[in-house]
Structures are given as C-alpha cells and as structure tokens.
C-alpha cells in the first residue's frame, strides 16, 4: 500500500489503541482498583466491591426494585429509609458509618455521621465539589445553579437572588393561591357530579399539574402557556433520564440514532426552541419592560449589565436556568404536597388542628395571603410550608 495512505492509518490505529487502553484498562480497571485500595489501607474505609463497567449499579437497582415491591402495611411507621435507600442500609450494616461505593466507574463515599455531614456542607475549603453530573442530566436540567461551582455559581446567584427577595415572593402568593383555587374548584366540580359527592382522585397527578402551573406562572408570567409546553418536554425527558440512570453508559452510545436517542434529541430541541421563543418575545417587548416574573428579573439583570453594572448571563445560561428552575421546583414541591396530604390522612387529629387554624386565621371566604400565612403557626411548626432557596 502507498505509504501516504499507510501513515495516517497507522496514526489512527495508535490513537484508537491508546484511547481504548486509557478507557478500559486505566479508567475502568486500574483507577477503581487503586482508589478502593487507597481508602481501605490509608483510611480504613471499605465498601462493596467494584464491578467492571457497572460498579454497584446492578445491586442498587435490584435492591430498590425489591423494596418497591414491599407493601406499606403500617401507615404510621416512619422508618422510610429501607424503602428509599435499601442499598445504603445494607452497606452500612456491612461496612460501617462511612463506606465507598460505585456509580459505574465513579467512586462515591456515603457517610451516616451527622456532624461530619454538617462540616462538609458548611465547609468553605473548596475541597468538596458537586458531583460531575452525567451528560443526560446536564441536557435535562442545564448547567444552572444546581450544577454550577465557583465563580460561575456566584455570577448566576447574583443575577437570580433578587427574584427571591421576600417582597417578590409575596407578590407571587396571589398567583399561587389562584392556581390552588382552580384545582380546588375542579375537584369540587368532579365530586358534585356524583350522587354522594364523593370521588376518587389521583392527588399526586393533580399536585404535579398544580406545581407545574405555579412554576409556569411565576417563572414565565404571561408566557405561561408556552412555559407549560416546555415543561411537558422536560417532563418526558426526565422519564427517559430516570429510566437509564443506573444503566451502564458506554462512551458513544448517546450519539447512536437509536429510537430512544432520537426521541431524546427531539425533546431536547423542543425544550430549547420553546424557551428561546419565550425569551425572544420578551426581549422584543416594545416598552422595554421584561416583567416581574423570574425570567423578567433575569433578563432585566442582564440588560443592566450591558450598561456596565452587575454580572450577566448569556442567552444559553438563561435557558439553562429556566430548565433548572422547572426541574428543581416541580417534583420536589408536588411530592411534598402529596406526602403532606398522605400524612394528614394518617393523622386526622392533625388534619383537624390545621383546618381549625386556617379557618381561625383566614376565615371561611378569605383566601390566604402573605399576612395570614405568617399567622399559621401550627402549620409552620410542622414545616408544612417552608422552603426558600
Ligand atoms: C420541597 C421543595 C424543595 C426541596 C426539598 C428542595 C431541595 C433542595 C436541595 C436539597 C438543594 C441543594 C442541592 C445541592 O446543592 O446539591 C436545592 C437547591 C436548589 N433548589 Fe430546591 N428544593 C425544593 C424546592 C425548590 C423550588 C420550588 C425551586 C425553584 C422554583 C428550587 C430551586 C432550587 C435551586 C435553583 C437550587 C440551587 C441553589 C444554589 O445552588 O444556589 N427548589 N433544593
């Protein structure tokens, strides 16, 4: 063969072999072996053995599936950890309060010591960084506040902080109660159609719709319909991501045009295009006002930066923050509501106390507002509505 052709081929082969060597031997075999040995011998931290490529993902999925199949027979049993994280409990019993385990070839240390957890979470040393998120998660939630570190995190935080000051949050309360009232009305209407005014409803689904509605309104204001479309695409992407979270991720698999990947790419494009559409229409608003919702405040902060103030976010970064807020604020709050209603049904005495308090402080025909919320001491003490970032 002509040496002009042969040389590039040889070079290509050398590159491919060294990549394969680095990926399989160094990253998938040698590195996990050295890390496990180092922790075991130098710090006495042991853990379940690393399995080639998949780490402990197989065992985690199996234990979680077994736990999911168990029936919740004692509703007042508050020992939930065996259902949520059975793998951690199993390894804690085997290896102690701190152990090393593997998400694929990524090492993780789990600690059960609260004091240690407090020190790590409040440490300013810069030693404890956030986990490197898998590409599927980054595509889903964007490189927003939850995944950012260091100066980028500070810059984003500076732009977003004003959206969460107390006055702005208070202004959002009427939007929130409005959404909650339409859900209450919908449920009443459904019940009214039945003879005995009783009906069965999947409340978890209803709360998902409610929290999506609230985030779409508070983040995107007048553009909330488009916001909900973006949200639907993100919801479908979440399902794909969660279904593959513990599967072995071979490099390159994400680029193959499989049916799942093609659906994923389509949804990612829809999500981005819809968010861009919302942002563009806001930027072209004639009066130069961007609005009082989260998006408006982000755009306003960036516009003020063009005049030489504060920090700014690029268009892509704003899109990423929109994705982050949808994801961070949706499932968390809807599950909190479902869980609260579940607990109130298990403890009717508390249901009665809280209902009496609401009726006492807000009356029968007044909707709760910022002032009356402050007076709901029983509910606050029970942490029934308390969350600020
Ligand atoms: C019950 C409800 C919620 C719970 C339990 C919850 C939980 C958490 C936790 C544990 C973190 C820290 C994550 C980490 O640093 O690794 C976090 C951060 C965050 N959450 Fe929530 N969250 C809730 C509601 C919300 C809502 C409603 C929003 C927005 C609309 C939101 C947006 C965020 C953001 C942006 C961050 C990152 C903050 C930063 O790093 O500066 N969360 N949340």
From TrEMBL:
Q: Which InterPro entries match?
A: Cyt_P450 (IPR001128), Cyt_P450_E_grp-I (IPR002401), Cyt_P450_sf (IPR036396), Cytochrome_P450_Monooxygen (IPR050665)
Organism, by scientific name, is Oryza barthii
The answer to whether UniProt assigns keyword Metal-binding to this entry is: yes
Q: Which GO terms describe its cellular component?
A: membrane
User: Which GO terms label this protein's molecular function in UniProt?
Assistant: heme binding; iron ion binding; monooxygenase activity; oxidoreductase activity, acting on paired donors, with incorporation or reduction of molecular oxygen
**A biological process (GO) annotation for this entry?**
lipid metabolic process
| UniProt keywords, alphabetically | Heme, Iron, Membrane, Metal-binding, Monooxygenase, Oxidoreductase, Transmembrane, Transmembrane helix
Question: Would you tell me the protein name for this molecule?
Answer: Cytochrome P450
- Taxonomically, which superkingdom? Eukaryota
Q: Is the keyword ATP-binding in the record?
A: no
